[in-house]
Amino acid sequence: MTRTIGLALSGGGSRAAAFHLGCLRALNDRDLLDRIRVVSGISGGSLLAALWAYGPKDFSDFDTRTTDLLRSGLQLDIARQVFKPSAAARNLTAAARAGTRQLFTRTTQVTVARPANRTDALAAVLAHKAFGTTTLADVTHPGLDVVLTATDLATTNAVRFGSTRSGCSRYGTITEPVHVATAVAASAAYPALLPALESTFTFQHRDGHHQQHTMLLTDGGVYDNLGLSVLEPGRSPHHTQHVYDVPFIIACDAGLGELALKTPHFMLGRLSRSFATVHRKAQDSARARLHEWAASGRIDGFALAYLGMKDDRLPAPPADLVPRSAVASYPTNFAAMARSDFEAITTRGEQLMRTVLPMHLR
Amino acid sequence: MKDSTTLELTEGQQLALDQLHRIVQASRGSVAATHVAATADGYVEARVSVGCANLPPTQDGLRLRSVEAVTLRIPPDFPFRAPSVRTRHTRFAGAPHVNWGRHLCLYRSTATEWDPADGMYGFITRLLDWFEAAAAGQLDRPGEPLHPPNALTDHTAGLLVIRHDAPVARPDGPWLGAAVLHQVNDIRCDVVGWLAVEDPWPDSLEQLRESAALPADARAFLAPVVVTTKHLTFEYPLTARELVESLARDHITPRLLLGLTGFVAGHNRTLLCPDADATVSTGDDEDTPAAPVHLLLGTPSRGIAGDGPRRTHLVAWHLPDFADQVGRLAADTAFSGHAYLAELGDEVVRFGTDWLDRQSTRWMRVYEVRPEVTVRRDHATPAAWLRGKRILVLGAGALGAPVADMCARAGAAHLTVADHGLVHPGILARQPYTDADIGFSKASVLADRLNRIDPHATHVEALVGNVTTRLSALDLHTFDLIWDCTANRIVRAHLERARRTDTAPWPHLATLMIGHHATRGIAAISLRGATGGGTDVLRRTALAAHADATRSFDDLIDDFFPTTPPTELFQPEPGCSDATFTGSAADVTALAGQLATGVLHALAEPADRHTMAVLIVRMPTGPTGPTSTQPSGPCWLTWPNDTLATDKATGYDVRISPAAMAEMRAEARRGARLRGQRVETGGSLLGAVNDAAGVIFIDEATGPPPDSLLTEAYFQHGLDGVSGHLAARRTATGNISRFLGMWHTHPHTAAQPSTTDRAAMTSLTLPLDDAPARALILIAGGPPPVWQQWLTTGDAPDLYTHLATRTVSAASEPLPPQPPAHLGPVRWWPGGYFTRPLRPVPVPRKGPRS
């Protein structure tokens, strides 16, 4: 089977991961998983993309493992990891190490306060619970490529962790193998919830020379919370390391839709809300881009399953459709999910994907 | 430059000299002009010297002096005629692009290459290019179109059209023989065959016609042909003496020419005047030749392209009638084989040679259509697919007539045009008929006209009468393509049924239609082996148009697939004239051309996935006029084949769309994933039954509603949301796709109805308000390998289909939410998406999603 589909999995914590799991169930039943050429993930979408791409070959095994992981959550474990003795020891030496790297004197005014933070902990939990020491090249499914996107706060560049190569346009290609757990944790460090992940990599620049750079990695959704930009048709190989040119795009969008009306009076609330607004705006324009690509013939077609879609917009909804209202209030963290929430979100994902697929993929 | 002011110059010549003056000034000595003079014929001649010292000599190149002088001839109507250039010497004679020894040929076609606005600037640039190419030996580069040897033709000498590939001389000697000429009219003959002297020649005119595939009444004769081993000079001599001299260098003596001419003339006499006594005849009859004497002369030369093998370049010399006599005399004496005639023969040859010497050569015009040296103007176009094909065109009207014309011009070998209509005055506004055709059958008139396009390659037949009844008279399988240009629903339905019931696959079928105002056109294509014909493809088009979320096909729906019939019908003539569309000759020809090109493109470059396609074209008028931002370009939709089954009750075709198959398979895979390998599942089918064509279309399938009962032995279709869903789909498809029936699976067992299924068929207990009287029962199943194959690779499972007629009233009570009692206690599952087994609760079982 030729792989002609690009799959984009949006950000949004466990809500996104569960929604995408439902979407993948629908894609499995429609026998489309084997036709996916590249999966692009952001944040929670990165988690699900990695669980599938680096997980068990058999779909049911993947489904069971993912269900277990999302149901039990990552949050409690993250908290435990932060207070592990090894982590505390790292914190003690942090200032000196940071000083030698001149991180405090950077003109970007980004400082590393706690190198062994909760995001490091997330990476450790992910390594422990899911990925071990698997590196990005070890994709389970032959012919599938993976791109997980994070943002480097130091340079404000998008950083792509990929199964074929990792890097960013500014520094070049990362030469050492990158752990899947690190890439997922970086991509999932949603600024309002988790601090940035500090990582040092050796880069090969375009001119061939090698140099180490330290990055402050945070949620990839700051730019493009849908994960579509790596799938954009007609990208030039001169400007990006990731060119896939897939004629069909399936996008799973766990976005909220319209924000519930509330007036944040406190600093923290305003910060959180402004992040939410940035993500929502980025996602809206990404959806518009999909329609544009299809209308201009740059792609042959796309299917978009959108968690926040208004139920009455579905042309032929299933009789037992999980309504938007039942899932839209679920937070975007990685806490343990109650069975009812998990089932509602996965089922809505499966239902939406099954409903939109026949409309767009002939 | 001098004297230019004292000459009588036209405005154009003055302009040319001014431009030349400026060029000379700007050239810093590399171009100089001297001796400007007017000639008696109104031209101005200027001698121009071109510095060639900087052009390095090459082995193949012309040897140039450091300064080359040429004479420009500037016509009075410059710049609307290009100047010419010649040399005073003949050092360049024999080189390519040098005519008559002195004339440099700078332009192949002045119409496209000479730009009057560039004037002398362009001309001198071209001249410098010529010298550069001459020095480099690249005047006649391989791969460039050939500049053929030049013969100044004489219009009164007649016209020769050469159709058949010509013979080539062997390395050891010239090719001698005759050309078979078909005399088309008083001035034109076509070369339709070649006979070498050593071959057996036909004994009668009938044999000759037969050998050249000419019609029985064709006038035909032979002409002597000589093909030389070496090429002559680059242009052909004006006098016969020069010609004879240059031929002699290739061992073609006047004796041989006279003998061959006489031999052919004698054979013509045998063919054309069989009654006349060939041996002893006297008087006028002897002096009048049986046929004109055209001597064909071939020289080896390149074809039109590149370095390929040398092809024969042909010219024809029209000789006076006396050549017939002197030739025959020479043949009868010098070539008689009798020693006692040898001396007389020598005398005749000497006399004949003297006579030839005094003649001037009269070269006939020659038009080439030889495949070996010509390229068809449509060779790289989609229409090239038609060449040599057998084509059937149904309908000889606004679409059919232009389409048939295109097929004939593209060189289809056989064309049948079918129509039952007669030409009447109203159609002359847009159909290619004339006043004289009124009252005659359209098909016959059209066939007569098309037969005249290329009678050598294309044979056109008319089929007059009702297409649906006359079609049986044809063996459709002998055609390569059928165009249905009737725009007639009855014909379409008839074709769909005939195509379906035929055991052998039909040729490609293209169904063409245009809209009510000739602003839009549709071509539906069913390739050989496609599951659907025109009716099917148009139905899919309507469905796709309705389903399009961007509403970009709404105009198409209104024009071709309206949900309510149009109220305003256009009836151009009083009485019961057929309603038709409004549209001009320009409209219908444009649409026919676009649709035909699209169809032929699809046939010439078939895609691997789809077998059915539709092309939609919109004219650049109305809403897509010059001020509109909406693109009016063509639009393609394509479909792969349906999965086919045959209905057990009616024998109808059951065509299951890939979308419906994919949905059923997704449900089967979902069931296997969640409920285990053996639990049945099912749902509703949407589509339509076409009784005329005998086709059941399954467009969509849905999964089991939430209140369905799913067990290993039984599937009961629930009702939750079904009515709403059916109504929604009905509206969304413009009433095309409606409730059709129900499907369910028999995992790992035969796709045959169980006792329960048989019982259910008669009642079809789906209490819908608008439940149709008939419903299709579809069972997908198969033994384990087949079933498993379907789930893993998508190869179709075993299918059972039965169009059942309901015998029990539909308005029965709601379904019991549990399986029938006779099945005993079974574990059953609900439909829908929330899936946990219900009762009886089995041994604690960890569900895949709990």
SSE blueprint and pairings:
The complex is a heterodimer of chains A (362) and B (850).
Chain A: E1 5-9, H1 13-29, E2 36-42, H2 44-53, H3 59-72, H4 75-82, H5 85-100, H6 118-131, E3 145-152, E4 157-162, E5 167-168, E6 172-174, H7 180-187, E7 197-204, E8 210-219, E9 248-253, H8 267-295, E10 301-306, H9 339-360
Parallel strand pairs in A: 1-2, 1-9, 2-3, 9-10
Antiparallel strand pairs in A: 3-4, 3-8, 5-6, 6-7, 7-8
Chain B: H1 11-26, E1 31-38, E2 44-51, E3 67-74, E4 84-86, E5 98-99, E6 103-104, H2 110-113, H3 119-136, E7 159-162, E8 175-183, E9 188-196, H4 205-211, E10 219-227, H5 240-248, H6 254-272, H7 284-287, E11 293-301, E12 311-319, H8 322-333, H9 342-358, E13 365-368, E14 390-394, H10 400-409, E15 414-419, H11 442-451, E16 459-464, H12 467-470, E17 481-484, H13 489-501, E18 508-514, E19 520-526, H14 534-547, H15 554-560, H16 585-604, E20 612-618, E21 635-639, E22 643-646, E23 653-656, H17 658-674, E24 682-690, E25 695-701, E26 709-710, E27 715-716, H18 722-732, E28 738-746, H19 755-763, E29 774-781, H20 784-793, E30 798-805, E31 829-830
Helix pairs in contact in B: 1-3, 6-8, 8-9, 10-16
